[in-house]
Design brief:
Length: 158
Amino acid sequence: MILDRLQRADCKNGWLLDGFPRNKNQAIKLDEALKAAGMRLDIVVEILLDREIAKNRIMGRRLCVKDNNHPNNIFIDAIKPDGDKCRVCGGDLKTRDDDQDEEAINKRHNIYYDAEVGTLASAYYFRDLAKQGEGLKYITLNGKPGVKDVTEELLSKL
């Protein structure tokens, strides 16, 4: 399904996968499928972030009831809401139930931070390919600074 999507005309000049692959097996299968289709992955980006900071950012997320695309987070200065109102439009804010469930967050993080078979293992699979000279660039970024700083770091490494 993903390969079919990546072969569409609007992906001709490039594409970005976010949130996939989620485990090492998916990374291997993606790599095999891309190679079989004569396609290649050019860049993999790993954003390094302490688990506690990641948890706080999830728990700090606030959704604007008028527009979910208005980013608000009580723990990120660049997108901190105006009190209990959306920083973009002034709308009321709400939270997602699973963003406030520490047990659910820990479960998600256990999968993500698993370097043997989890999401980090999928990233490391591609990191190892990059080290072998597969024509793949592997970029690591410090995710602790604000969005602007992380974006600038990414652009400088591209």
